[in-house]
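User: Fold this; tokens only.

Assistant: Input:
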Amino acid sequence: MDQENSDNFFQSIFANVAGNLEPAPHTLRQRRWRANRKIRPYPAELSSLIPPVEPINEEDLHSSLVDENYENNLYDEYLENNPYGDEYLEADTLEDDYNFSLNQIGIESNEKFIEEELDQPLYDGAPVSIKCYHKQIVDFGNLVQLTDSNMNKLLKLIRNALPFKNKLLKSYKKVVSLFQKKSSFNEVLRCTSCLEIINNNYCSIICERNYSQRLVGDVIEHFSTDRSNTQLIDVIRRNKQLILTYPQLVDKLLQCDVMTQLIYKEKRKELQAASNATYPITLMLHIDSTPIVHWSRKHTWFVTASIVEIPPPLRENHLNLLLLSIWNAPIKPDVDLLLMDICDTIKQVLFVDDMKFSIDVLLFKADLPARALATKHVHHNGYYACLECDQQGVWCDEGRFVAYRYIQSAINLRTSAHLDMCAKLLSQQSSGGNYCGVKGISPLTKILDIPTQIDLD
């Protein structure tokens, strides 16, 4: 009986609660929109359906907090007075969905690069500045996911309630330009045959594919960072205290770190000797091929860098990694096109918050296939595959591989001068190929010493 009485009690409570439930505001708005769409024909000119502007309380307009109840009531009154309200917004939303605009994504403000004029009041006696007020408008538009055209209507509605001499921007595109960061990457499309930049299907006069239509899978998508150093400056500014203090404490905190090795100490002394007021920053370059999408026709190669002066594990955090280049193509990248611009611009001096930082490269790390590509050396399964010495290797018929046997006598270690000499002798050969495993001069020779500063991933 107790169980039966308990069930009856809960059923009666559920019946009373269910009878008092009401549909959500979004459901009511959708129902009214469908009903109006059945009754009313689609208007020929949507511009005539804009409702008259009513004065808005200035305290509510400048408040940093959004009163959701006030917004819902205002929207319901607008729907009652204007039966075309939802139809107008819905039609406009469908129209803007085909514009492929990225402005609906969250926009982060970069306040350090905004002009000082934006700190002035929105109008004489305004409690908010131009920058702060426009930032609140952008945040609200991102929160409710308004389209660009609806954001323009919102700006017009707000402007009608402001004093005549106000500094509110008239278009959403100008508002976005205040906070939107400029892309720090250069994008080009290259031909898979001649590797030249494609411009209106033109690549090279001598190329067999010149002025021929190309599919997406038959082009090279090459992204490279520009010379603005936006990524590097942001990472340095975000980790400035760690960069300044960790080198002084690394011997006590992490004795096995790369900063405790002789190569780093010599590099740091070299950078500090150039100027006493300069703070050295060394980078670790990394290159690898990663299938970011399941597409067998293209492979993606990344060139990234990390700052050595940032302690691990923050050093390898995705927020602190520098993306230098991307190669997405059906063929392997040309190492000169992939690394030449990086090697020409990576060594420099930067000023971040009135502090001088000297940028240099400590080492390059990669797996064996990527290392062979970047250093212009033969693969790890070929003759003279070792980058540290000039041992030739012996072919094994049974296993069908190249073996490197133990030799008691001393072998010749490779140096940068030895690699340069091999590349010079290779250029004099008509057959090409490689000379003692060297296939050419790598762009990495401009920024580091091979093989001393080459590491395995």
